[in-house]
Amino acid sequence: MVDIGIVAVGGYNEVGRNMTAIRIDKDIVIMDMGIRLDSVQIHEDVEIERMHSLDLIQMGAIPDDTIMNQIEGSVRAIVCTHGHLDHIGAVSKLAHRYKAPIIATPFTMELISQQLRSERKFRIGNTLVRLNAGETYRITDDIELEFIRVQHSIPDCVFAALHTRGGTILYANDFKFDRFPILNEPVDERRLRQLGREGVLAMIVESTRVDVNGKTPSENVAKDLVMDVITGIGDTDSGIIVTTFSSHIARILSVVEAASRSGRVPVLLGRSMDRYWEAVKKMEYIRERFPEDLLVAGDRKQIDKILKRIVSEGKEKYLPIVTGHQGEPGAILTRIGDGDTPYEMSKGDKVIFSATIIPTPMNAANRYAIETKLRMKGVRIYTDIHVSGHAAREDHWELMRMINPTHVIPSHGNLSMTGSYAELAEELGYVLGEDVHLLRNGQEIALR
Amino acid sequence: MVDIGIVAVGGYNEVGRNMTAIRIDKDIVIMDMGIRLDSVQIHEDVEIERMHSLDLIQMGAIPDDTIMNQIEGSVRAIVCTHGHLDHIGAVSKLAHRYKAPIIATPFTMELISQQLRSERKFRIGNTLVRLNAGETYRITDDIELEFIRVQHSIPDCVFAALHTRGGTILYANDFKFDRFPILNEPVDERRLRQLGREGVLAMIVESTRVDVNGKTPSENVAKDLVMDVITGIGDTDSGIIVTTFSSHIARILSVVEAASRSGRVPVLLGRSMDRYWEAVKKMEYIRERFPEDLLVAGDRKQIDKILKRIVSEGKEKYLPIVTGHQGEPGAILTRIGDGDTPYEMSKGDKVIFSATIIPTPMNAANRYAIETKLRMKGVRIYTDIHVSGHAAREDHWELMRMINPTHVIPSHGNLSMTGSYAELAEELGYVLGEDVHLLRNGQEIALR
Amino acid sequence: MVDIGIVAVGGYNEVGRNMTAIRIDKDIVIMDMGIRLDSVQIHEDVEIERMHSLDLIQMGAIPDDTIMNQIEGSVRAIVCTHGHLDHIGAVSKLAHRYKAPIIATPFTMELISQQLRSERKFRIGNTLVRLNAGETYRITDDIELEFIRVQHSIPDCVFAALHTRGGTILYANDFKFDRFPILNEPVDERRLRQLGREGVLAMIVESTRVDVNGKTPSENVAKDLVMDVITGIGDTDSGIIVTTFSSHIARILSVVEAASRSGRVPVLLGRSMDRYWEAVKKMEYIRERFPEDLLVAGDRKQIDKILKRIVSEGKEKYLPIVTGHQGEPGAILTRIGDGDTPYEMSKGDKVIFSATIIPTPMNAANRYAIETKLRMKGVRIYTDIHVSGHAAREDHWELMRMINPTHVIPSHGNLSMTGSYAELAEELGYVLGEDVHLLRNGQEIALR
Amino acid sequence: MVDIGIVAVGGYNEVGRNMTAIRIDKDIVIMDMGIRLDSVQIHEDVEIERMHSLDLIQMGAIPDDTIMNQIEGSVRAIVCTHGHLDHIGAVSKLAHRYKAPIIATPFTMELISQQLRSERKFRIGNTLVRLNAGETYRITDDIELEFIRVQHSIPDCVFAALHTRGGTILYANDFKFDRFPILNEPVDERRLRQLGREGVLAMIVESTRVDVNGKTPSENVAKDLVMDVITGIGDTDSGIIVTTFSSHIARILSVVEAASRSGRVPVLLGRSMDRYWEAVKKMEYIRERFPEDLLVAGDRKQIDKILKRIVSEGKEKYLPIVTGHQGEPGAILTRIGDGDTPYEMSKGDKVIFSATIIPTPMNAANRYAIETKLRMKGVRIYTDIHVSGHAAREDHWELMRMINPTHVIPSHGNLSMTGSYAELAEELGYVLGEDVHLLRNGQEIALR
């Protein structure tokens, strides 16, 4: 009999810093190594790149993987299923402790590589393995990894299925059922249903929005909202600025298209805009969706130069797409609001937030400050031009029905979220403590 | 000098029972005569059709037009700008007191006629005048009425412009700036801008959603949401029921199209579904958008017969579109939830609410009851598949800029809403009490 | 070794219908048998007294004790720890199935007896055993029951400690740490600390308000609020009506005292006011706190007669304390609001709600209706003159520190509440699934 | 005929920066000159003491009194009705522009003097006149000022009545009807009723909490809450820290008493604690309520020394009462939370917030940060041990009935608050625009 254990390392008591270890006898596969940024945010003057992992663990910013010492076995692979920081942000702090390859899809791997290059404290020597959605990789003789295409809010997301002699474990964290996506293919439902028929021993699944009614709308609806607002502004000679997630390439693509349709030149501005664009440039199939001559700038001088040009040629000719949707100090929108750039806001100019406020009081305060400053200049503000990238209640219900796993382990959430997932599972006949399990950071469950 | 007065009769202290009188010297034009249904709802056993207007006035259900006695002048016309009950619902109770024609667009007039036919207490003999959007009608030698196409959440909505020797008064209650509508043409912005250039003395404008950030998305976004949910349900052999506003013909059209696309026969069920369908049948340009053989039933026996057939042929072949989105007692969805029809809900069946809860505690309680009962049967619920029909903050900002009226009079809202409108107007340079005016039911303002 | 099991029968998935079975080898002790009224409320025309238990179980209104068949052993006692309906309301429907005495404090037993007398469907023959706080009762040779005085929002509440050869189990559902109570002694903290030192195997504890910050204030604060409002109303010649929980005798006492202090004659009106007063009359130590000649009426005719007298003698001379704080149909306040009694409300009369809205949409709607009707008559309304009877977060933290139980089993709450309790326990070093346990209705846990 | 005008200078579009000018023919009396701190808070590195008034006006931080140039007449007096910064905080920036005495109660005047001493930009030479509650002062031959005792959340608050040939104007901003106050006498209701009988032309009244149901409880209830929490903490050997408003002397007195009762030595720590204590020391009748040997420290070194001593002697022997209830950067609680003082928090220590979060997102974020840091150290937190100092809806209803002014002018609030006040006034028969007036900053109304 194979002995399989699931170890909740991070992301089971909170949203953020995801990390799960799956143990098959003495072989361990780690899923994700994320960071939790709001733990950092309440402290000032923290420079993550230079910090030691133990300090970050103590702050609750990265998973406490010291518990791995108590797990008998060797780590054979580190798998990252998409490129958001709460899934890859601790790789540069933790991966060097394990003699194991890092496996990810090409886009995700680009982002991991960037991070490893900017790390100042540790030197990471792990092998990097690029694996496409739909492909498989043999981790050991007995463990095969399969990547299955899903949709979320960053390109190239996958579920990771571990096929073992003891059964298949599906790691499903994060996703949405987008049937009309803007980038990449829709979720590979055919394969998921097939997996379900073949039998899945355990599914580890995100639970961030399980309390939200219904299904999460397609990113296509977000595109419509973006088009509706940008092309619908009657007041065509005012300045318009859009701010959104730098990693949300599909969204940025929609904004770029809306810009073109309304006769404005789109420009991507901000350090992280530039960083993600570097990754996009490596992905031909994404790159080709954007205009050849798209202007992107990440360095402060260059940005100010472009903003100067925009002002002199006429704001109504451009559509800057900038960082700062959470009012982050130092982001472009914040600097513009503070009057620290050549782009002076005037009465009637528009700022469009294609993002929601990530619900922490620090973000609320930052957003309030930037919105107040903009309003004092007479700027018109459009908020929440956005659709989530996370599955809602009925999406989860559908996924559970498709996969029909023997065990369900909700992850990526606090107890209130994973508890809600358990209640949903109960509606499908699962029983808490028997086949749906509430793990807490630091706990291991043995699957019978 | 012409002496112009605006009399706030109803809808200035509340949402609902809209009625405004515009006095040009001794000639009076009444805009809208609506009912406020939540005033009725807290009382049991009220049968409106048989009630006298004074009792309804005392309950706060219809405008208190007794104040009209103190206005010197004669009513020359009663104008209804769209067919919702909060704009036409008191016509059958109040119009007979005035010797004046009722003027409305064709679809609106159909609904008024229906209402007059079902009135049991009063006999209404006023002349009925159908006027199309884009057309004008001479009320007196000195007063010309013009209808301007707008969009809202019922077909055939208009703004009413009264051209007088003293200037133009624009009645703009209700609307949204929908640039990609499903039915009818978009808002006639060209004419609105022209009006603005010609000069508008006063604009009376709704204020229900002026506190909502940004712009109200197009009904096209609602269509996407409907499509996304209905065609995106993986579980194709379960029953699906949609409930929405019977008067929201554009929405119903989207649901009907989604039904067809997912291979289900759409069926409209419910007394008010049938009533609005009667009006639709008279409008060829709307009727032709629907399938020739669309099934519609309003009478209880017939509905139960159809539901029986659906069950016997297979729920997965049909898409009932039913009344009851607010959980109203007696509506089809409520009856289904109570197990009072041949359509038995089973585990995994879906109910889609293409509507929000109209925010009164009574509705919240009714919705809670129906949702709880459905969930107890294992039904999966999708809520808020909806986009509003009312302008949001930035839409109002754009309208004010287009029209640039000398005076602004926010209407259709409580003081908190009309007050918010005044604050918005202040951002455009208006001054409270000078050129933006907060009226209360029963007050008249003289325009200088 | 003794084999001890805790069976979650009801109240582990919801607030209401509490029932826990504690099994010591083959001997079973049942703690509480409650009803959940909001499950009944969404259905109309339900007459509980005549309903069969299986129907009530199916509606989710009473605990599903059919699972008891699968528990090996015999029920030796049914213990009720206080007299609220969510703890005793199912006794008349379920107790007859067990050949075991019902044990409760004197006040609680009065209420149980009333209920058994009004039951129409079943005949209950169980022996009734009155046990005072501070006393013990030998259930079997090996099981001793001890009642420990606590405070809540009804007189004569206790924790039940079961002393067995396998250790002590403490049933702590519901309570608050009131150090300045109005009725009875404060919580017997001395005994609780002693218990903690002796060792407690398991504590079963309520979790309704564990999410509320800090500590729940003393009922003494509620008394101050009541005094402040009633004696502070400057307008001394208007009518004042207070509505509060009929079972909250301490609160009623404070209102009665405030009435006297402001020179008004207190009168208790309403069916359930009368019913609880019947129980009070049997408790000499409570009875003597009230005026000798207190007027109480439960029967409709009598109530109307008293209200008539009040109106004729002058409203300012009386203080009616009535049922209807949730706007319940048929309650006295509701009837007064509907104008169905001789007590006509006039402009400037006051209604004081010494209660919060129990948070279900049905209550919100009922309260909205009654408040709206009262406001339409010009009545001034004072709400939330109230302090909760349930422990808050820090009270629970203190209790856990006092008792220091080996195992903690949060009860009386949905998973979100019991989950929050578990998180609190984690702050004290407990580990989910090891020594703090989330049970769901129908589950048994074996204690190691 | 006397010509009376009321000029809304500040506090009519917002909470904060109160300033109203009352013009009697050519004589002007200014009521309050306040600052609005949240306008400053969104900017970093602002040092108010060194800023020019025009810059502060531009930021919206102090009233825009440049409009006074357009008012014909001379300022004869500047009256401050209590010592909160939103009523006196702009005196040092604006008073020097007027050749007029500053009139205030003794405690208020102490605070004004402190402020004038710390001003770095302007030199203020106005005469300072101390006037007690119950006394009058002749401003001109025709204008007499009367101070009437009220209660709020700082000592020595008054209403200001201006008796003029044209009638009496009552300035009632801020107050609560506290019938059981901790400091000073209750509101002088006898005099208010008398004023009402004599006739009041206009009442200018605060509206911050007019939307809150019922009446604001007495400060006595806050004292009970403080006692309940502090003396009720079972865990007597842990550290306890209380944080509250430095200016709320009555509250501090209650905390000091609770400290004594629980055998702990109270210590007041923080710059503003020290500053207000300086003012208290000048008021014998307040000073004598506190222990002779009360320890107070405002200077950093001294504070750290005291904290060191507390730690070495035993935290359980002291009760530090500190600044930082809003999590303000630099305040003592914030420094303790950051580990920047000798007072190390340990597991089980308590922090009691005897304050609510003043509702701006910046405060919410600061409070979140400090609470999170404290919780990470295992500190137990008690929040909202507080009762407001502002009148609620029914208090306002009572005041209006007492005074029965010909005109009502709600102030100190945004339009949503002053609008709510107007709706309340309507319930008493006032008519918007006729005898209840909504002014906006910069507007003058002439009283007929």
TrEMBL record, chains A, B, C, D:
Substrate binds at H386, V387, S388, G389, H390. Its EC number is 3.1.-.-. InterPro entries: Metallo-B-lactamas (IPR001279), RibonucZ/Hydroxyglut_hydro (IPR036866), RMMBL (IPR011108), RNase_J (IPR004613), RNase_J_2 (IPR042173), RNase_J_arc (IPR030879), RNase_J_b_CASP (IPR055132). It is found in: Cytoplasm. Its cofactor is Zn(2+). Zn(2+) 2 binds at D86, H87, D174, H412. GO terms for cellular component: cytoplasm. Pfam families: Lactamase_B_2, RMMBL, RNase_J_b_CASP. Zn(2+) 1 binds at H82, H84, H152, D174. It is an enzyme of class 3 (hydrolase). Keywords: Cytoplasm, Exonuclease, Hydrolase, Metal-binding, Nuclease, RNA-binding, Zinc. The keyword Hydrolase applies. Belongs to the metallo-beta-lactamase superfamily. RNA-metabolizing metallo-beta-lactamase-like family. Archaeal RNase J subfamily. An RNase that has 5'-3' exonuclease activity. May be involved in RNA degradation. NCBIfam families: MG423. This is Ribonuclease J. It comes from Candidatus Syntropharchaeum butanivorans.
